[in-house]
């Protein structure tokens, strides 16, 4: 053992300096803003636009389907979770006479890498901002074109990275937590 | 031989070799769009530009032959820059709609731009567009000219290989559009070879439109199930549905070509009307049943009859293995010698045909035949029955000097390639051949026994009955005399009218023995495995490998005859629609109804299955493994791509199940073991190689001789000659037309009727007459006429064919709603009809 007498250490012990420092952190968080969200009762996180959640299919401004069923997303997919079956339809449903008869994604297999988004030549497929994918029925993880073509709950124009007011909404599928993008607060992560 | 240096590597090649071929031989890559080995060189796409040292400008290597001492660079910086420049210009007006285009993923332009192209184009101008929307050229072909690279391969293949010339180039420069007159395909063969050669998505299959991407498809290397040319093709399926058939460049006798039946006729496989469950007749109605019950009913009923009172007819579209098992079932298990493989042809005529065509002498390659000095095509409507054989003949005959003679009552596409075209009366092939022999014999050849046989025959009689002028006959005879080697291509008319076969047999003897020529005979058959069926021994007169058998059985004719006389109790029919194919519909129906027990195995509910007591659902060529023997004797395997629909089974499994219900050890169990047994049983098949040779070669003459069957020495007893007698000469007053039948370009047999694409090309029967007759009657193509025969009459549209023999009417034999066999009656050779204009 060292023969030197540690006077500084002793003083620190006597005045409970470590204890006080620890308490200071507690005190600081006690008065600082909370980082936990009151989800789902009160608040819901709205992710950034770059977020990669469940897939969505988009339409052009005139409402035509952007997807031309080129199957590049299915080809690019590393987990082979996308199935596209094209068909011919020149009634103006899509931007070309080739449209998807079947566009199906199996979210259980999806790893949300976003390669499909990158491969898409018409920017029809986007990984959206939906992240509440937990379910009790595995069949509901396979999503089809009709559901994916519905407008997204959070508009593309909203940059995200905010917390919105949450409210419950009863649907046939169950209770959903809807973010009310009208009432938002900025919160640093 | 010249020696050239390519990228510093010395290589010796034959004179006049193209730089492109020399470079490819040397292992240097040269990209091309417009070059295709068997088409006329054009040098239009400029992708193959190479640098020749000492020459300032780059040269197109696909039309420049090598010179001795040339030093060629294929990958210098000038060349790569030129390639990128060419691609940039091609893309300047290219539609760039790859995501929509069906070709994406297998597009040559995509690959080239990926490999050689400029990363960026400098063209900012608005792209020139031929049209906004893809336009439909025909029920099977759709076109988008905006994607065209102006290689004109489609135009050249249409003219040089297919020989119809319906496509042409309109306009100049980048406004040049390869299309047809008025953007419709009126006289097109609808074979889609333009689609196959198109490097981009300009010509596309309409049935395959927006169905899949190339990477979605699971494929199997197989053989076309239509005619006996034996075209190798690849069929591709997505999610259990066969969506496409295509041929590969440099693979098989056909190389990249297929006909409309092969390319578009596969969709009978996915027809919703396929039988999917066994049916057993209970209280007079066919009701769905199980395999166990169906086989038990068959066993119970068949064992009640004596073997010789059971007959079997198997389709020449089954595989060799299945046909072998079929005849084994009859000969060894049921103890019946009555097996046959066709409802259309008389079995003794078949035997005489096999002898005359020398089919027991082993396989004859069509390329060897085309190497002869004189080629004589007789008794075949080759352009319609064997379209790809027609392409091969056209391609080779245009490339070398040869004497091509075509004898047929009907005009055909190949006539334009022939030196001599003969229009003889229908069913007078024998008289024509005898006239030729007698002309050859004028100088008193060393008299052979054969010639003695026709000593009594007068030349003038033969000439008169064939309806050909003496001058033409002399010209043919001279052509044969002057040729070193002769090939005779004989078609199915000899089987329909076996009276002509002895003439063929005699000509063979005269050419070989008296004139000492090198003679090859190639039978042109119209069912994919007709030759295989005979060689497997599905014939009442001989066994596997043309082996002599103890007692002669009954052929289809004899079986039906016996059935009406209650001399036959049961029949097992595998895949043949006797009721609508036998040339006397009423008799066939009566005979089949008179049977005590009829088992029919088929893919579809046909007229024959409706008469059956047990119906067994069988499978298509895409659903089984096995081998077909084509008309040349080339044994080629087919591969399984998918499973049969519902409870349907493979034909081999059905035959095996029936066999095993009698004898537990009936087998062997799978196709390859059966083929091993065939090798042991038939000497001809002993050394046949079943390995698909996929090697590509430059001139596309992929002639895989290892697959040809060998000569058979098993023929101990010899074949019986045809003794059916002379053709009946009847009063022709009321019925001025002789009715011919056969296959249509778009249709052959029951398969094509069940194909939606082919039915879209031609749905109902048409009667084809010559232009002379049409002018006399005042009808045009498309007019409605009434065809009246002695036993039947029917209304249909007329098609006028320029150059056919006057007084000849043709109706294809496969249409269910116009069964041409109702015009025929047994015991009378041929049928006569009258045609009257309606409306």
Tell me what you see in this structure:
The complex is a heterodimer of chains A (189) and B (839). Chain A is of the alpha+beta class and 189 residues long. Chain A has a three-stranded antiparallel β-sheet, with no helix packed on it. In chain A, strands 3-4-6 form a three-stranded antiparallel β-sheet. Helices cover 20% and strands 28% of the residues of chain A. Chain A is elongated and about 90 Å long. Chain B has five domains: 2-75, Ubiquitin-like (UB roll) (Roll), CATH 3.10.20; 100-107 and 123-268, Alpha-Beta Plaits (2-Layer Sandwich); 279-350 and 530-634 and 645-688, Rossmann fold (3-Layer(aba) Sandwich), CATH 3.40.50; 354-523, 3-Layer(aba) Sandwich (Dimethylsulfoxide Reductase, domain 2), CATH 3.40.228.10; 737-837, Beta Barrel (Barwin-like endoglucanases), CATH 2.40.40.20. In chain B, 29% of the residues lie in helices and 19% in strands. Chain B has 28 helices and 33 strands. In chain B, the strands form eight sheets. A seven-stranded mixed β-sheet of chain B has the order 15-14-25-24-23-16-17, sandwiched between helices. Chain B has a six-stranded mixed barrel with strand order 28-32-29-31-30-33. Chain A binds chain B through residues 68-72, 75, 85-88, 90, 96-98, 121-122, and chain B through 97-100, 104, 133-134, 209-213, 215-216, 239.
């Amino acid at each position: 053992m060292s023969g030197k007498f540690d006077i500084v250490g002793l003083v620190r012990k006597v005045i409970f300096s470590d204890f006080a420092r620890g308490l200071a952190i507690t005190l600081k968080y006690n008065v600082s803003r909370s980082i936990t969200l009151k989800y789902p009762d009160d608040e819901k996180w709205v992710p950034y636009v770059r977020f990669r959640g469940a897939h969505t299919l988009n339409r052009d401004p005139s409402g035509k389907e952007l997807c031309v069923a080129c199957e590049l997303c299915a080809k690019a997919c590393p987990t082979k979770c996308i199935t596209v079956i094209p068909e011919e339809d020149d009634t103006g449903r899509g931007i070309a006479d080739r449209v998807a008869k079947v566009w199906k994604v199996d979210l259980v297999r999806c790893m949300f890498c976003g390669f499909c988004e990158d491969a898409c030549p018409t920017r029809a497929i986007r990984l959206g901002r939906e992240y509440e994918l937990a379910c009790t029925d595995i069949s509901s993880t396979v999503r089809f074109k009709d559901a994916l073509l519905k407008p997204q709950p959070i508009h593309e124009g909203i940059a995200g990275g905010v917390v919105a007011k949450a409210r419950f909404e009863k649907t046939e599928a169950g209770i959903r937590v809807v973010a009310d993008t009208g009432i938002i607060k900025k919160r640093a992560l | 031989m010249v020696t050239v240096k390519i990228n510093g590597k010395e290589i010796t090649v034959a004179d006049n070799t193209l730089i492109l071929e020399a470079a490819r031989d040397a292992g240097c890559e040269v990209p091309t769009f417009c070059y295709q080995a068997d088409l006329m060189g054009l040098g239009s796409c400029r992708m193959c530009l190479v640098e020749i040292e000492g020459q300032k400008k780059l040269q197109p290597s696909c039309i420049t032959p090598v010179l001795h001492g040339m030093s060629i660079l294929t990958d210098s910086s000038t060349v790569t820059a030129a390639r990128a420049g060419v691609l940039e210009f091609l893309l300047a007006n290219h539609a760039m709609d790859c995501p929509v285009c069906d070709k994406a993923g297998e597009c040559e332009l995509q690959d080239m731009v990926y490999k050689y192209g400029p990363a960026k184009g400098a063209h900012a101008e608005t792209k020139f567009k031929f049209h906004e929307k893809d336009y439909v050229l025909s029920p099977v072909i759709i076109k988008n000219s905006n994607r065209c690279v102006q290689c004109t391969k489609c135009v050249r293949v249409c003219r040089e290989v297919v020989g119809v010339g319906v496509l042409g180039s309109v306009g100049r420069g980048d406004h040049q559009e390869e299309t047809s007159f008025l953007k419709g395909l009126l006289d097109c063969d609808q074979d889609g070879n333009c689609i196959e050669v198109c490097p981009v998505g300009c010509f596309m299959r309409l049935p395959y439109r927006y169905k899949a991407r190339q990477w979605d498809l699971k494929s199997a290397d197989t053989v076309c199930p239509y005619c006996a040319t034996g075209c190798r093709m690849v069929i591709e399926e997505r999610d259990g549905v066969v969506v496409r058939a295509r041929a590969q460049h440099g693979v098989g006798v056909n190389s990249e070509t297929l006909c409309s039946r092969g390319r578009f006729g596969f969709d009978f496989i996915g027809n919703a009307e396929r039988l999917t469950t066994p049916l057993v007749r209970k209280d007079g109605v066919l009701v769905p049943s199980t395999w166990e019950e169906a086989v038990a009913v068959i066993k119970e009923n068949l064992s009640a009859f004596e073997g010789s009172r059971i007959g079997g007819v198997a389709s020449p579209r089954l595989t060799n293995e299945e046909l072998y098992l079929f005849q084994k079932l009859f000969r060894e298990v049921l103890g019946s010698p009555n097996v046959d493989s066709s409802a259309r042809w008389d079995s003794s005529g078949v035997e005489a045909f096999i002898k005359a065509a020398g089919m027991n002498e082993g396989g004859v390659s069509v390329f060897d035949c085309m190497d002869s000095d004189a080629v004589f095509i007789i008794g075949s409507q080759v352009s319609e029955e064997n379209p790809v054989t027609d392409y091969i003949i056209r391609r080779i005959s245009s490339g070398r000097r040869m004497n091509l003679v075509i004898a047929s009552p009907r005009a055909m596409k190949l006539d334009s390639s022939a030196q001599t075209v003969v229009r003889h009366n229908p069913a007078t092939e024998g008289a024509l051949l005898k006239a030729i022999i007698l002309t050859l014999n004028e100088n008193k050849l060393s008299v052979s026994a054969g010639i003695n046989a026709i000593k009594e025959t007068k030349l003038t009689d033969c000439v008169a009955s064939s309806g050909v002028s003496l001058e033409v006959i002399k010209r043919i005879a001279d052509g044969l005399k002057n040729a070193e080697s002769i090939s005779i291509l004989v078609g199915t008319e000899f089987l329909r009218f076996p009276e002509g076969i002895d003439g063929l047999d005699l000509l063979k003897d005269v050419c070989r023995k008296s004139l000492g020529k090198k003679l090859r005979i190639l039978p042109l058959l119209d069912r994919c495995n007709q030759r295989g069926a005979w060689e497997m021994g599905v014939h009442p007169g001989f066994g596997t490998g043309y082996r002599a058998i103890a007692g002669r059985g009954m052929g289809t004719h004899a079986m039906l005859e016996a059935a009406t006389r209650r001399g036959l109790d049961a029949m097992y029919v595998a895949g043949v629609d006797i009721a609508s194919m036998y040339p006397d519909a009423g008799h066939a129906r009566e005979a089949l109804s008179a049977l005590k027990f009829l088992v029919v195995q088929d893919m579809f509910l046909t007229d024959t299955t409706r008469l059956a007591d047990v119906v067994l659902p069988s499978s298509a060529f895409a659903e089984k493994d096995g081998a077909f023997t084509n008309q040349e004797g080339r044994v080629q395997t087919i591969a399984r791509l998918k499973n049969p629909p519902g409870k349907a089974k493979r034909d081999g499994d059905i035959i095996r199940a029936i066999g095993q219900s009698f004898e537990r050890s009936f087998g062997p169990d799978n196709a390859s073991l059966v083929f091993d047994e065939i090798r042991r049983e038939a000497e001809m098949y002993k050394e046949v190689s079943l390995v698909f040779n996929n090697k590509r070669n430059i001139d596309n003459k992929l002639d895989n001789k290892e697959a040809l069957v060998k000569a058979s020495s098993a023929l101990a007893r010899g074949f019986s000659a045809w003794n059916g007698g002379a053709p009946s000469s009847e009063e022709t007053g009321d019925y001025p037309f002789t009715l011919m039948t056969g296959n249509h370009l778009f249709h052959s047999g029951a398969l094509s009727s069940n194909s939606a694409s082919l039915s879209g090309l031609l749905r109902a029967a048409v009667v084809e007459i010559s232009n002379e007759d049409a002018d006399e009657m005042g009808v045009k193509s498309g007019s409605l006429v009434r065809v009246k025969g002695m036993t039947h009459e029917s209304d249909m549209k007329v098609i006028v064919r320029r150059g056919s023999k006057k007084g000849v009417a043709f109706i294809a034999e496969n249409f269910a709603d116009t069964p041409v066999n109702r015009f025929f009656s047994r015991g009378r050779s041929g049928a006569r009809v009258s045609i009257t204009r309606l409306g």
